[in-house]
Every structure is written in C-alpha cells, then in structure tokens.
C-alpha cells in the first residue's frame, strides 16, 4: 500500500486505539520496559532492535517518528539519533574500518569533514570530489568503501546528479550515503535514485520550530540494523522520547511549511536579482536550465540560499547583517524564523578564498514571515551599503 507524503506526515504509523484513542500519541518517557516473566525478558533481549527493552534501543514514541521517516524516504527502516551529527558519526563509524577510503562529493557540512579528518587516526582516509565534479569518478580508489554526498551542498547549494553517482558506485560495490537535510524527503528521495542511505539533521525543516535537535538515518535493514547495533547503541547518541514527540509534531506540517518556504524564497531571489550590489545568488532553482537531472531528482526547493555581494570587508558585511531585524543572526536553519549568517570572520578571508567561498557570501534561511516583510528587511540592509 502506498501512502501520500501528507498521509505519512499526519497519520501513518500511529494507532490511537492502542493509547485510549488519544489523537496525539503519548510520550513514553521511560528509560526501561518491564516484563511479566524472566523468560519473556531474556527473549526480548535477544532482539533489542525490535523489542522494547531499554530506551537506548527502541522507544515507542521514537518509533512512530522512525516509521514515518522510513515511509517518506521510501526506505525499509530508520533509526533516529540525538542530532544530525550523531547519525552521521554512527554511520561512518559503523561502515568504515582501518584501510578504507571515503570519497566526499560536493560541498560538505564542516563538522562532517572534521569527522572524516578525525577518522584518519583509525587508518581511514578521505578525499574530495567537488570543484572538478565532471571528473569525480577519477577520485575513486581501490579501497573506496563509501561515497558520502550532499546535494544541494553546504553554503553554495550546488547540486550533483544523484542517479549517476549511485549507478557508478553500485557497479563498483561502493556504499552510497547522502545528507538529504536541505531538501527533506518531501522534495528529494535519494533511495529511489539508488542511494543506499539517506541521513537527516531533524533539527532543520523536519523539526521546523528551532526547539529541538535530532538526526536520522534511513535505508535497508542490513545497513541500518548494523548502524543500530554498533554506531548507535555503542556510541549512545539516543533521541529522547520528548524530543521525538516535538519532531513528530513538526513533521505533521512539513509539506505545507516547505511549500511556503519555497514560495517566499523564490520571491526573495527575484528581489535579490534586481540588486546591483549582488554578484551571485546560490539556490538550485537557478540551476535547472543547465542541469536537467535536477527536475528528475527534486520536486521542489527549500528556503536556504546564499548570495554574494561586491564587498568582502568584515566591517561592511557586519554593517549589512546588523541592519537586518526580521532576519535574526544565528547558526542553523530550516525553522519558522528567518535567519542570516556568513562564513566570514575578521581573520579568515584568505582561508575562505582557498575553499572557493567568496568572503562576501551571506546565507539566508527564509522563514515563514512572508516575502514582503523579508524583502523590506533586506532593502534596509542594502541601503546601508550605498
Ligand atoms: N548536515 C547539515 C547539512 C547541516 O547543516 C547540519 C547542521 O547544521 C548537520 C548535518 C548536523 O546536524 P545537527 O546540528 O542536528 O547535528
């Protein structure tokens, strides 16, 4: 039976008759589960992936969220974590071992790169395929065990052809993992394009209200159950029941929120295109003419974008950002509120240039306040530049 994404977000995986008809499932705020007999207990312990024994295993509230996320991604199963980094870390720790190589494709979230660097102390190597994406296959080594991709990528929101990558990797027996946080499974379903695992920071659009941190990995039983057994249970980045409840609540409105984030972002982009000080805008909606695969792999665009202004001086960028008031200054993205940030600090201009990032880059997370208010706020900041 197939369900629409809206059905999955609102009703799928819930069974009110199991909890007194409550339309909002209870929060199973418990660390452990008790048994009627010692035999029942020992039997349950044999399969902690499926039985409620201890909440560093499975928990009913978390399980509702996991069932919904697996269904949305069209995957067999899902495991949730206390953060996106918890999910990424558990995945890499489980799937890689001494002597393996991981190929990172596209612009990857900074702490994920730091994790790859950290894993070198266990004899795991990594390299990048980003600028020279056309020749990415040349970067595959004999010991490449894993391809880890982001699309759209961090900071510049560049896209890559997911089906082409999955096909090449499959032919070579390489496992493919994608950080699908930017699109959410509403706008992109990488498992249907051949990727093995899809990872999310639930902290962003899926939670959607900037009040919770969480992560998830979705894929087939063989991979996710292995991650459960090692990277999850032994590293212990457990999602609490209350946080799972909040994320479930966010999920109910995800499709409708994303449509609004998209609409607002497209209007803000149209406005930015009229500004003489803007030299580049980064959002996959602007790449569709050049990259036909985008239409095949994405059904919409979320509200995280970046743009470059002519100036690269810390004082000028600060003046622009400080002139904004609707856009709050802060990390993270994907919540109801509009946010602004920049990778620029007062001492890292050269470093950014070496990474191919303009010091004049400003990132916006377009929230739900409405495009008119967002554009008016940006206009105030542009006036500061002239
Ligand atoms: N992946 C991406 C693309 C992110 O932007 C982030 C956080 O900003 C993460 C993963 C990590 O998620 P979390 O902060 O939930 O650990």
Secondary structure elements and pairings:
Elements lengths: L4 H6 L27 H8 L14 H14 L3 E5 L2 H12 L5 E5 L4 H10 L5 E5 L14 E7 L11 H10 L3 E5 L4 H4 L9 E5 L13 E5 L1 H12 L8 H12 L1 H19 L5 E5 L10 H5 L6 E6 L4 H9 L5 E2 L9 E3 L7 H6 L6 E5 L5 H15 L1
Parallel strand pairs: 2-3, 2-4, 4-5, 5-6, 10-11
Antiparallel strand pairs: 1-7, 6-7, 8-9, 9-12, 11-12
The structure holds pyridoxal-5'-phosphate.
Give an overview of the whole structure.
With 386 residues, the protein is α/β, with parallel strands linked by helices. 37% of the residues lie in helices and 15% in strands. The strands form 2 sheets. It has a 7-stranded mixed β-sheet with strand order 1-7-6-5-4-2-3, sandwiched between helices. A 5-stranded mixed β-sheet has the order 8-9-12-11-10, with helices on one face. Helix 7 links the parallel strand 5 and strand 6 (197-201). Helix 3 (60-73) runs parallel beside helix 9 and helix 4 (84-95) runs parallel beside helix 5. The longest helix has 19 residues, at 254-272. The radius of gyration is 22 Å and the shape is globular. The structure holds pyridoxal-5'-phosphate (PLP).
């Amino acid at each position: 039976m197939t369900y629409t994404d809206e059905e999955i977000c609102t009703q799928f995986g819930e069974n009110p008759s199991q909890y007194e008809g409550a339309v909002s499932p209870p929060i199973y705020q418990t660390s452990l589960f008790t048994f009627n007999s010692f035999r029942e207990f020992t039997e349950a312990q044999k399969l902690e992936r499926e039985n409620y024994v201890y909440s560093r295993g499975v928990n009913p509230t978390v399980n509702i969220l996991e069932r919904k996320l697996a269904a949305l991604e069209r995957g067999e199963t899902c495991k949730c974590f206390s953060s996106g980094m918890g999910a990424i870390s558990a995945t890499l720790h489980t799937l890689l071992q001494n002597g393996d190589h991981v190929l990172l494709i596209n612009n990857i979230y900074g702490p994920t790169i730091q994790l790859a660097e950290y894993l070198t102390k266990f004899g795991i190597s990594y390299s990048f395929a980003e600028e020279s994406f056309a020749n990415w296959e040349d970067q595959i080594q004999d010991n490449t065990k894993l391809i880890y991709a982001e699309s759209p990528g961090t900071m510049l929101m560049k896209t890559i052809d997911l089906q082409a990558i999955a096909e090449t990797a499959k032919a070579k027996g390489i496992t493919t993992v994608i950080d699908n946080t930017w699109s959410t499974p509403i706008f992109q379903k990488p498992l249907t394009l051949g990727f093995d695992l899809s990872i999310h920071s639930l902290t962003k659009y899926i939670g959607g209200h900037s009040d919770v941190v969480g992560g998830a990995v979705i894929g087939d039983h063989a991979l996710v159950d292995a991650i459960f057994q090692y990277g999850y249970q032994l590293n212990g980045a457990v999602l609490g029941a209350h946080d799972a409840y909040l994320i479930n609540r966010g999920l109910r409105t995800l499709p409708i929120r994303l449509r609004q984030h998209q609409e607002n972002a497209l209007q803000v982009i149209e406005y930015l295109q009229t500004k003489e000080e803007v030299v580049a805008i980064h959002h996959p909606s602007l790449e569709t003419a050049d990259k036909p695969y985008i239409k095949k792999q994405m059904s919409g665009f979320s509200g995280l974008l970046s743009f470059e202004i002519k100036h690269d001086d810390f004082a000028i960028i600060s003046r622009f950002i400080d002139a904004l008031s609707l856009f709050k200054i802060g990390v993270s993205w994907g919540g109801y509120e509009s946010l602004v940030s920049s990778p620029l600090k007062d001492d890292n201009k050269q470093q950014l240039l070496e990474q191919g990032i303009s010091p004049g880059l400003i990132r916006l997370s377009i929230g739900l306040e409405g495009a008119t208010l967002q554009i008016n706020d940006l206009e105030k900041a542009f006036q500061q530049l002239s």
